[in-house]
Amino acid sequence: MDDLKKRALDYHQFPIPGKLSVESSKPCTTQDDLSLAYTPGVAEPVREIHADPANAYKYTNKGNLIAVITDGTAVLGLGDMGALASKPVMEGKAVLFKRFAGIDVFDIEVNAKTPDEFIQTVVNIAPTFGGINLEDIAAPHCFYIEDELKKRLDIPVFHDDQHGTAVIVAAALLNALELQGKTLARAKIVFLGAGAAGCSCAKLLKLMGATNITMVDRTGVLDTNRADLHDNNRELAVAPSSNKTLADVMPDADVFIGVSAKNALDASLIKAMAKNPVVFALANPDPEVLPSAAFAVRDDLIMATGRSDFPNQVNNALCFPYLFRGALDAKAKKITDKMKVAAAKALSALAREPVPAEVLAAYQLQSLSFGKDYIIPKPFDPRLMNYVSTAVAEAAE
Question: In whole angstroms, what is the distance from residue 343 CA to residue 318 CA?
Answer without folding.
Answer: 9
